[in-house]
Amino acid sequence: MADKNVQILIIDLGSQYMEIIRRSLRYLGFHSIILPSGVGHPNSLLQWIKANNPKGIILSGGNASVYDANMPKIPKEVLDLGVPILGICLGMQWLAYVNDKDSIQAVKEGKSYGPVEISLDDSMLFKDLPKKINAWSSHGDSVKKAPSGFKVVATSKEGTVIEAMECAEKKLWAVQFHPEVEETQDENIILNNFVGNICGCNQDYDKKDVINEIRENTKKILGNGTTIIGVSGGVDSTTLAAILAPALGAKLKAFFIDTGGMRKDEVKRVKEIAKKAGINLEIISKYKNKFIEDIGKTIDAEEKRRAFRKVYGEVFKEIAKKYGATHMLQGTLATDLIESGSAGNSALIKTHHNVDLGLSQWGLTEIMPLSDYFKFEVRELAREFGLDELLTNRQPFPGPGLYLRIVGTPVTEELLEIVREADHEVTEILKKHNVYNKISQAIVALLGVNTVGVKGDGRVYGHSLVVRTVETTDFMTVKGFYLSKEICEEIVSALIKHSKIVRVFFDWTSKPPATTEFE
After folding, report:
1. What is the tens place of the pLDDT at every residue in 43-61?
2. For residue 236, which of 405, 402, 373 has the smallest C-alpha distance?
3. Which of 142, 167, 208, 495 is the most exposed place for a label (fewest CB within 10 A)?
4. 170: in domain
């Protein structure tokens, strides 16, 4: 299959950050395509490269080891095509290994995880960067020596650890750290140097094209069919419905499911958002008890997500039958696919309610027009529809909602109400102190371990709440947003007024190792 418009090929070696590479290139203005490494069929990848003549190739990271049997297969012939190659993490290790099998240092000795200060030497890859940058490292094995013909161009730990190497004569560059994530403080200069300066690519991506592409691609898939879409009132599904409503007209049936796990006044707000976006929305509330009953049977996070997805799917099945739908639209983002293990070879982090619903058994074809995009990009699209006030500063909320914010104890209607009110209290305090819009996501959860406290001069055992505030660009990585002592004290004072709350914790753990949500 030829695609003459693609300038950069990204070869998927199983990295959790693989989609972020494409997002970063899109941000810089370059089209790219992700293809699997060709496990078992490496020649098909080679054939694609020869047919499409990309100007550059990026090898992603991954969780395999170059010396293991499950290492993704990359045809060595790509090294002889004269196409510039950038290896990232595992991609760097593969470039070293194929040139010298003794160049790799095994995981027990070479493991590196977290922030690292990198010292840079002269290289086209590092043009316009200072001599030292802070970068994000996440790997097991490492390169202990550069193969013959390669020059080390970046190191860490006072020159003892190789962080980048190049063989400019063969057009090969490699970095052990991850330039695609925001924790690497290079402002995307490394990727821009590779794509723009080394590969000679021209900027060919215009954000204004996205809306038309989404509409045309969806209309092509839908044909003469009818599609349903569940609108949660969040950024993703609402923006998607707003994009497609004018293009699909009566072929689009939008509805909102009140699951019982919504935030305070959520139904009212969703109605307002839908009206603002020009979406004709049906409200469905009769399944609330079913959600609570099924999800309340377990405290295991994955089982809760699967239970939610099961009921969620049953509702969609009924709605689809009502409208005679042939397709179902999902506001699924690249992040969802990555974390659910549905993007290339990436590993499962957690189940997402809007991924792998098994719709084919109901005669429905799934359409995911936003599956290449990240949250900040969807927010930009929302602005095109005048949804700034209602959407672009609206923090993400998980599909299963407050069901994922009751941790370690069975979900009940009473506990949902406690968390709902606490979430509202915290949000109002953050807005009062003008920090809400600086926080990417604020999460209030109930921890299912009772602790001793004092209420009304008596000894009691009560619940604990945890408040988590983070900041991020793409939600693939996050860092804690630290609240002032004044704000923390006000939050604690407000939450412990509830008779059954005795403690409040604050969590600012980064992702990784934590995830954004607790479940």
Report:
1. 678 888 888 899 999 999 8
2. 373
3. 208
4. yes
Q: Is 223 helix (H, G, I), strand (E, B) or coil?
A: coil
Asked if 188 and 215 sit in the same domain, the reply is no
Angle at the Cα of 296 (from 291 to 300), degrees rounded to 5? 115
Calculate the CA 284 to chain-centre distance: 28
Q: How far apart are CA 315 and CA 258, in angstroms?
A: 11
- Regarding whether 342 and 305 lie in a shared domain, the answer is yes
Question: Does pTM surpass 0.70?
Answer: no
Specify the amino acid at residue 228: I
Number of compact structural domains in the chain: 3
Q: Which residues lie closer than 8 Å to 129 by C-beta, 6 or more apart?
A: 120, 186, 189, 190
Domain of residue 17, CATH code: 3.40.50.880
Which residues participate in catalysis according to the annotation?
A: 89, 178, 180
CB contact at 8 A, 299 and 264: no
Burial of 478 (0-12, 13-18, 19+ CB in 10 A): buried
DSSP state string for 312-347: HHHHHHHHHHHHT-SEEE----HHHHHHTT-STTPP
* Each residue's pLDDT tens digit, 268-297: 888 888 888 888 999 998 899 999 999 999
Token pair 């020059």 in the structure block, residue: 151
